[in-house]
Design a protein that fits this description.
The protein has 112 residues and is mainly α. 46% of the residues lie in helices and 7% in strands. The longest helix is centred in the C-terminal third of the chain and has 13 residues. The termini are far apart. Keywords: Metal-binding, Zinc, Zinc-finger. It comes from Billgrantia sulfidoxydans.
């Protein structure tokens, strides 16, 4: 039987589609968009900027980055770090507290 499926990346051949798909998932997984990718896409943007202008600014970027920026909350962003924080909230589905104390003594530092 002749191989019906060929990996476009490494040239491996497979007779069954399921084996080809498993190969693609395990050998060549799709890399998720990172905060660094988002930061790179935001270079050259004059902050502060509203959500609509932010979406317009990343129009020429990869589809995944455009989709992520479009999903960010509709608000005014002070800088790239503000966008990164919103991206983190989007990924974890949780909103970060405004008064996050750091370190192990963080809770004690919030006490009056």
């Amino acid at each position: 039987m002749m191989a019906q499926f060929t990996c476009e990346i490494c040239g491996a051949t497979f007779e069954q589609k399921s084996r080809y798909e498993r190969h693609m998932l395990t050998s060549h997984p799709t890399r998720a968009v990172s905060a660094a990718d988002l930061e790179k896409a935001l270079r050259g943007i004059d902050f502060p900027v509203g959500h609509a202008d932010l979406v317009d600014a990343v129009r020429g970027e990869e589809r995944e980055i455009r989709d992520i920026v479009a999903q960010l909350p509709s608000r005014r962003y002070r800088d790239a770090a503000d966008v990164a924080q919103a991206f983190g909230e989007l990924r974890t589905h949780a909103q970060a507290a405004d008064d996050q104390p750091g370190g192990p003594g963080g809770e004690r530092s919030k006490r009056p």
